Structure formats: C-alpha cells, structure tokens
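Support request from a user on the community tier.

User writes: "When I paste my structure tokens into the form, the page sometimes reloads and wipes my input. The last time it worked, I copied everything first. Here is what I submitted, just in case something in the input itself triggers the reload:"
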C-alpha cells in the first residue's frame, strides 16, 4: 500500500513524539481569522503543561512543528528544575507578528486553548506581548503573564535578571570559593529587557563590566546609566578576557566558532538555548569552562508566571527565584562528583525528580 505525503507526515510526527517523549500535539486552524497554531504538550507528570506562545513567520509547517516540539520539551526540564508544579508545553502561531496580529486572531487562539480545559497554560514568548493575551482572555482563563492592569504579574524581565544574578553568584562561588562579585570581570552580551536589569545588579556589587549589544541605542542607554562600564563591538565580546561570560540575547552563541575564542572561566546568562548543540556543553566541560545551564539560570520568569496561578505574591516569587542559587550548587556538585558536563547533571536532576513524582502520583489515594 502506497502512503500519501500526508500519511507519511503523520507517521513522522508520531515517530518524533515517541523519540522525544511527547504526550500530545494539537494542530489548530480557524477559518474566520486564518489562525494556524500548534500546541505541543510534552510531559504532565508534575502538573498541567505550562509554556509560552511564540508567533513567528515560519517557512514551513514542519519548521513550526520542530520548534514547538523542541521548546515544549525544554519547558518540562525548566519546570522540573524550578520546583514549580507544572509540566512542559509550548504553543506556536504561524504568521508575521508585525503584520498579521488582530484581536480576533488571538480570541480564536484563546478559544482553542479553552478546549484543552486546563491541560495547558500559556502566555507571552517571542513575537507576542501581554496585550495579545488580553484578547485571548476573552475566550479562556488558562493564561499567564497578562499585564498588571489586567490582573497579571507584570514585567517578568525584572525577576529573570534577578535569577541570572543569583546564578552568576553561585557560579562565582563554585570557581572562587566566594560569591562576591566585587572586582570580578563580567562580559555581558545583550542589553535588552533582561540584560539592562542584570547590569544593574552586577554594577551594584562592584563587578567590572564589559558590555555589548547589536542595537547601539541599548548600549548608549546603559552607558548613560553606568558611565564607568566598558563597551566592545558585538563580535568582540567572545574574546574578552573575563571571569564570566554572560549571554543575554540570542541563542546558539556557544558553538564551534565561538568556543575557541572564549577567554572566560564560566558561562552564565539569560539567553535560551545557549548551546548550539549539546556537544558544545561537552566542549566547555573539556576546556574547564563552567556552564550554568540556561534553563536553570533564566527560570525566574517562569517562576513568576507559575506563581500567578496561586494568587500571585511578588515576595514569594522572588524568594523562589533566589533558589536558583541552591539549584546550581546541586548541579555543580553532581557534575564534579561524576565528572560530567553541567547540562547533563541538570538533566539528571530533573529526570530523577519526574520519575519520583510519577511514582508518588501513581499511588491510589482514595
């Protein structure tokens, strides 16, 4: 029996789900608005899936599918390591976020989220903003990250930067035996929403900062606030001699080209998917460069939006985000004990937790 291309695609999707451990993938189309979205639920052992909604002008449905599968799996690990009672999921909307957004489009998206009846909560990600989900909230309540004036917790960049600062301090302690950042040389890549808040924490501690951004206006703004910091061109940041390199912009910046340039003792930042491939984590380990796994270091924002689902408390959210320091200490200990890269140590920590919680929840409690 010959298979059609559509049948082949279905088989490929199931094979991909099987290999990565996904529970559910939902394709959503709305004729009235033209909405094309995909929701991927990776693992709900720890609780309902939680993950942002990305809107991007993908070149193909396959590209969008691969992205949502990869991102949803990453959210399982991020939720697991953060201690929140949620599993991993993600949503993508196929379309140009600059020209194809509308109130009706996000209402249609909200309507689809409502059909999952709480299996998946979502909010902002690349290409989406809080007001998009104000539109979606007209059709569903399974949302996080709404603007404060609409009952949300507000700008998550502040707590994300706080968590990265804690990650850098834990990393400094592992290297130097003290978490003081006074006079430590830190190279900061990216001065956007998170990076500029992080610079504030580091500067207040007396760190010596070398910063860069592809947008000159961001550099100028930060330089006005902190005149004593040093600036370099974007491509020069990798070869800066420093104690810690902190990537806070694009992903995949640790790769075959940049690793030979690095003159740092550690890498710790807010950027997602910092390692272009997992083998680059192995390369850092071999070079003796300590790596704070990105999904641990940047978990502050997730911790904030997860807290929204329990009557948001800013104090509680920041207290939980401060635990990023302790989590990294555990990861570094596992890495050192077993002589394995830190990204593998972090994965072990999460996978063991999911297995234990799964066993606990498998018991009948009446």
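"...and here is what came back when it finally went through:"
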């Amino acid at each position: 029996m010959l298979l059609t291309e559509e049948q082949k695609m279905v088989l490929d999707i199931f094979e991909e789900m099987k290999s990565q451990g996904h529970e559910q993938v939902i394709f959503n189309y709305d004729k009235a608005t033209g909405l094309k979205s995909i929701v991927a639920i990776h693992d709900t052992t720890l609780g309902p899936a939680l993950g942002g909604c990305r809107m991007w002008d993908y070149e193909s449905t396959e590209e969008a599918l691969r992205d949502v599968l990869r991102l949803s799996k990453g959210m399982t690990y991020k939720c697991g390591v953060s201690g929140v009672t949620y599993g991993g999921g993600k949503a993508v909307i196929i379309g140009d976020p600059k020209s194809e957004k509308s109130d009706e489009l996000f209402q249609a998206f909200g309507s689809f989220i409502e059909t999952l009846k709480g299996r998946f909560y979502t909010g902002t990600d690349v290409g989406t903003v809080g007001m998009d989900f104000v539109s979606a909230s007209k059709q569903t309540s399974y949302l996080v990250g709404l603007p404060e004036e609409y009952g949300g917790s507000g700008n998550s960049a502040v707590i994300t930067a706080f968590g990265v600062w804690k990650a850098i301090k834990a990393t400094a302690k592992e290297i130097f035996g003290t978490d003081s950042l006074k006079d430590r040389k830190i190279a900061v890549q990216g001065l956007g929403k998170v990076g500029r808040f992080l610079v504030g924490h580091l500067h207040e501690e007396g760190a010596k900062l070398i910063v860069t951004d592809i947008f000159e206006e961001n550099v100028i703004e930060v330089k006005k606030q902190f005149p004593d910091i040093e600036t370099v061109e974007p491509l020069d940041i990798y070869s800066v001699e420093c104690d810690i390199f902190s990537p806070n912009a694009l992903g995949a910046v640790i790769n075959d080209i940049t690793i030979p340039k690095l003159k740092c003792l550690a890498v710790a930042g807010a950027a997602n998917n910092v390692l272009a491939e997992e083998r680059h984590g192995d390369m850092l380990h071999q070079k003796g460069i300590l790596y704070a796994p990105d999904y641990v270091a940047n978990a502050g924002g997730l911790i904030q939006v997860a807290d929204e689902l329990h009557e948001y408390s800013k104090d509680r959210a920041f207290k939980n985000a401060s635990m990023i320091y302790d989590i990294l200490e555990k990861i570094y200990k596992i890495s050192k004990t077993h002589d394995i890269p830190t990204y593998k140590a972090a994965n072990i920590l999460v996978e063991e937790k999911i297995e234990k919680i799964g066993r606990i929840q498998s018991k009948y409690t009446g």
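Agent notes: The reload is a front-end session timeout and is unrelated to the input. Residues 61-82 form the longest helix (22 residues). The mean pLDDT is 94. Escalated to web team.
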